[in-house]
């Protein structure tokens, strides 16, 4: 018997279910935490890694790219494949202005350009596994 360390699931539509506290969606991994349930229910290709207990949803072109890579190459079966997501983080400081007194000229608001930054999160490697 081979342990299942990862899996794929395709949600054609968002699959949001009302769940009671402590209840998990049908078919999800045993380790799934309540904060991960919305990801499990999103529309798209759901990919999870049981070793790292991580779950990601890939939409549109991202999921097609991954499936094309898995179909076209066999190296991932022994070496694994990393799934990384790029994101953007912006920091914007908003200064609170003081109330101006009657008759006081309006001052120019201080503007600060947002600081953008790229970051990525990697889910880990997926290796071939056999289902029971």
Commentary on this structure:
- The chain is α+β, with helices and mostly antiparallel strands and 132 residues long.
- It has a domain at 6-80.
- The chain is built from three helices and five strands; from the N terminus they run βαββααββ.
- The protein has helices at 37-41, 60-72, 76-79, and strands at 6-11, 44-49, 54-58, 81-91, 115-126.
- It has a three-stranded antiparallel β-sheet with strand order 1-2-3. A two-stranded antiparallel sheet has the order 4-5.
- The longest helix is centred in the middle third of the chain and has 13 residues, at 60-72.
- The chain is elongated, with a radius of gyration of 22 Å.
- The mean pLDDT is 76.
| Order of H and E elements | EHEEHHEE
Q: Main sheet?
A: 3 strands, antiparallel
What ranges have pLDDT less than 50 throughout 5 or more consecutive residues? Answer: none
Rg, Å, rounded: 22 Å
DSSP helical segment count = 3
Strand order of the biggest β-sheet: 1-2-3
Mean pLDDT: 76
Give the overall silhouette: elongated
State the end-to-end CA separation. Answer: 7 Å
Assembly of the depicted chains: single chain
Percent of sequence in beta strands: 25-35%
Structural class: alpha+beta
Could you tell me the number of beta strands? Answer: 5
Q: What level of helicity do the residues show?
A: 10-25%
Any chance you could write out the topology, listing elements then pairs?
Blueprint: E1 6-11, H1 37-41, E2 44-49, E3 54-58, H2 60-72, H3 76-79, E4 81-91, E5 115-126
Antiparallel strand pairs: 1-2, 2-3, 4-5
């Amino acid at each position: 018997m081979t342990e299942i360390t990862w899996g794929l699931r395709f949600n054609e539509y968002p699959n949001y279910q009302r769940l009671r506290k402590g209840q998990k969606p049908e078919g999800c991994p045993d380790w799934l935490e309540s904060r991960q349930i919305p990801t499990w229910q999103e529309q798209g290709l759901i990919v999870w890694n049981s070793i790292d207990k991580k779950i990601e949803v890939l939409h549109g072109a991202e999921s097609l790219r991954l499936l094309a890579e898995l179909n076209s190459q066999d190296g991932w079966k022994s070496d694994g494949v990393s799934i990384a997501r790029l994101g953007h983080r912006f920091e914007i400081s908003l200064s609170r202005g003081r109330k101006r007194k009657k008759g006081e000229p309006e001052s120019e608001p201080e503007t600060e350009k947002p600081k953008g930054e790229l970051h990525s999160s990697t889910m880990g490697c997926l290796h071939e596994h056999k289902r029971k």
